Amino acid sequence: MDNSSVVTLFTLSGLSGTTNYRHTLFALTLLCYCAICLVNLTIIVTIVVDKNLHEPMYIFLCNLCINGLYGTAGFYPKFLTDLLSTIHVISYAGCLLQGFVLHSSVTADLSILVVMAYDRYVAICRPLMYHSVMTTQRVCVFLFFAWLIPFYLVFLSSITTLRLRLCGSHIPKIYCINHLVGKLSCSASISHAIIPAFNYTFYVLHIVFIVWSYVYLLQKCKFSAENRSKFMQTCLPHLLCLITLLVSVFFDLLYMRFGSKKLPQDVNNFMSMEFLIIPPIINPLIYGFNLTQIKRG
Length: 297
Prior knowledge:
The chain is 76% helix and 3% strand. The protein is built from twelve helices and three strands. It has helices at residues 3-6, 22-49, 56-73, 76-83, 92-125, 130-133, 136-162, 178-182, 190-221, 225-258, 265-290, 292-296, and strands at residues 9-12, 89-91, 170-171.
């Protein structure tokens, strides 16, 4: 029998213990989402309006903020609706769509951060070649693949999840992701194991590249006061954004796979939401406070 005829709705049980303070949580969540939209839109509008900021680094930053809005849009509207409802369900298609948006947003973040790391590497280590390397056409190509590859890889993962025969509909979280849907499958699937493993490996290599580029940059900056100044103004915010993202995502991944059921539900929910709260707010604030041209804009 086709899975879609067996499972049409999933139950999300992450909010089962929040009845007494649901309205307070709704107000705080709405405030958080508004803050995310405000800080990201401020950076985006500043970069779009100020022609002095139409440079590769700021164009990449603009895309990072757009991705922050994209990823949070896949979570907060549904979560806010659930907070005002006594029934927390999501359709099969809605679950897969939410999983796609959340996964693709995180992976696109990493792809954009890799491109930003390469941009800083060229700017500091090959300054005379910067404008010939980071041309408008090449920047567009970098951004095209920074969005396309995550979407394509996550799409493949979603397709393998869609083909699974499910024997349950209970998801012990406040949102849907492919891993949790896969745990409901009646039997193990090789493709459902191989594709996520490839995706994880692919993005671990992204992190390795960023670490390598920073090791190289630090070596170059040791002997040049000008390079050190460039590093502090542009590379340090980028590094902080990367650390914020990785800590938030790894925290959620480690908890999801190895976490204890003895932890309170509120703690579980916060750990689940951490990568949807901290990076989208902190990333634009880091750049807003640290990049001189952004502050002047």
